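Reference record
================
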Amino acid sequence: MLRIKKGDSWEFASLRAKIRLDFRGEESRQSFFFGKEKPELSAESHRQRQVTILKNLPWQGVTLEELNTDYEIYTVASAERGEKIAYAPVELTVTADSLEDLLSFVLRDEFRKIKILEPQELTLSNLDMERAIYKMGQEYRSGLNQEGYLH
């Protein structure tokens, strides 16, 4: 829990935030019978798989309040390959016990935007900042290990 100042006193409170994730879909390889899968369909199926995971995973220190998948899928042209890439947005409303609990969402490749809903004003102590930086380092190293960059 974070300590926030209310008037002359300090209280413990949770963070409430809206987080937007955009799940990517590309044209799949050409199948012998069916042709290529459109990037929009690929993005939608990726979004549905990830929404299922987000709903069912127990997040320590995080409560999933709302999950909105009503956003339209949008496409952009890939500069490298000249193909269309589709993105399927999802907006999560979460309550977190601490700042570092939000980092598992924010450090994802799909992360696009965050809006802190509560508290309106936030002051971090040295300890809070140290924990957040430590958690970012752990997540970063974990990602590099999964990609095979670190031994």
The chain has one domain: 2-147. The longest strand covers residues 84-96. The chain has a mean pLDDT of 81.
